[in-house]
Write a structure and sequence with these properties.
single chain; 449 residues; Trigger factor, domain 2; five-stranded antiparallel β-sheet; 12 helices; isomerase; PPIase_FKBP_dom; EC 5.2.1.8; peptidyl-prolyl cis-trans isomerase activity
Length: 449
């Protein structure tokens, strides 16, 4: 094998490789000898087929196999001998491919950049920190009380109000003829819930127990039952009971109903949960700060092929969004330039974080990966077992959960080395800052995703 380096510009290396015909012939003869041991053709016993006959019948296919193997092996060796780290699959261009002659081809390979050791101690970042006010905990406990509310008969009796629940019997008819599914007894309906067709609930506001009410409505034109769509209907209703919702008091009983020992324990857990939410928001903001600073300060070259792949993925989403009605500016070339810059930024940050992680032996443990699988399963209530089985049988899909964990651990590593100052803010200030940061990011990346 003869390797000639044609060019080495930036991250792109180009070689010319020549594989002598003798090497190919030797490989083909070796394969023919192996085949001859077991080959069977009409008129010959197994293992007695002449090699010349096998070559006549299978020579073309064996030549193709030998060429493919030679290209792969020689390309890998040329890259390994030069200590290159490919960023993408090498691109091969065959120049001479003819039986009885040397095989000549050119290889273009883009390599990963040498990032080198980075000093993160000079990066200055600000972490916003919000304490959880007692009023936020009080409001959260009140919401829990509302979520656990109970229905009780109104006392003293009064007409039904919006927000009440009523127990009623009703019978519906169209042109005086009752229709299937249009009647019920002891049906409990919350007035204002919007669970019935438009206008139905409004006409029962003010209804009294025992007094019949004729509710006149028109079924929507797109109603699910075609025989009723667009038709006028009358529901003869009789209210049997008016119920009001009573929020559960925020006390030990409510806490125990929600699996806490007492109100103090529930209050502490609620405060911690809100605090975790604030911490997560703050974490997202400081991570964005860090990535922005890394993108601004680290300007090493990135493989064009990786950028092109990322850009194509972004632009495909743009095209899909255009089909769904997204309006874009007229200057498409300007848009392409903006999104290519975004693609380059993403690739550069991805390579940088990957290099930092590898250089500092950051890894994702089996326990962390299993926890990620469990979190994914919990997203599909009622289907947790199927999700767990899916990931247990699909190692590649499970590995996809590894990348975000690796990234977060690497970011944590850099944050430990950076100069981080904390600033105390109110929850309102934290949420406002987070919204503004998100809007700024959305404005810069638009529909890039």
């Amino acid at each position: 094998m003869q390797v000639t380096e044609l060019s080495a510009e930036g991250l792109k290396h180009q070689f010319k490789i020549v594989v002598p015909v003798g090497d190919l012939t030797a490989k083909i003869d070796e394969r023919l000898a192996e085949m001859a041991k077991t080959a069977a053709l009409p008129g010959f016993r197994p293992g007695k087929v002449p090699v010349g006959l096998l070559k006549k019948q299978y020579g073309q296919a064996l030549f193709g196999e030998a060429v493919e193997a030679a290209v792969n092996t020689s390309t890998a060796k040329a890259i390994e001998d030069r200590g290159l780290k490919p960023a993408l699959q090498p691109r091969v261009d065959l120049k001479q491919l003819e039986e009885g002659k040397d095989v000549e081809f050119e290889v273009v390979v883009e390599v990963l950049p040498e990032i080198g050791k980075l000093d993160f101690s000079g990066i200055e970042l600000e972490r916003l920190k919000a304490e959880v006010p007692e009023k936020d905990i009080d409001e959260a406990l009140e919401r829990i009380g509302k979520a656990n509310r109970e229905q009780k008969p109104v006392d003293p009796a009064r007409p039904a109000q919006k927000g009440d629940a009523i127990k009623l019997d009703f019978v519906g008819s169209v042109d005086g003829v009752e229709f299937p599914g249009g009647a019920a007894q002891d049906y409990v309906l919350e007035l204002g819930s919007g669970s019935f067709i438009p206008g139905f609930e409004d006409q029962l506001v003010g209804a009294e127990v025992g007094k019949p009410v004729d509710v006149k409505v028109t079924f929507p034109a797109e109603y699910g039952a075609p025989e009723l769509a667009g038709k006028d209907a009358v529901f003869k209703c009789t209210v049997k009971e008016v119920l009001e919702f009573v929020d559960k008091p925020v006390d030990d009983e409510l806490a125990k109903k929600n699996n806490f020992e007492n109100l103090e324990a529930m209050r502490k857990a609620v405060g911690e949960r809100i605090g975790q939410d604030y911490t997560q928001i703050s974490r997202g903001m400081i991570k964005r700060q860090l990535l922005d600073k890394l993108a601004d300060t680290q300007k090493f070259a990135v493989p064009e092929g990786l950028v092109e792949g990322e850009f194509n993925a972004i632009w495909q989403r743009i095209e899909e969004a255009k089909k769904n009605g997204l309006k874009i500016e007229d200057d498409e070339e300007k848009m392409r330039k903006e999104y290519r810059d975004i693609a380059e930024r993403r690739v550069r940050l991805g390579l940088l974080l990957a290099d930092v992680g590898r250089s500092n032996n950051i890894d994702v443990t089996p326990e962390e990966l299993n926890q990620a699988v469990m979190r994914e399963a919990m997203r599909y209530q009622g289907q947790e077992r199927q999700v767990l089985e899916f990931y247990s049988k699909n190692a590649e899909m499970k590995d996809q959960l590894r990348a975000p964990i690796f990234e977060e651990k690497t970011v944590d590593f850099i944050l430990e080395l950076a100069k981080v100052t904390e600033k105390s803010v109110t929850p309102e200030e934290l949420l406002k800052a987070a919204r503004e940061a998100e809007q700024e990011e959305e404005g810069s990346e638009k529909a890039a995703g």
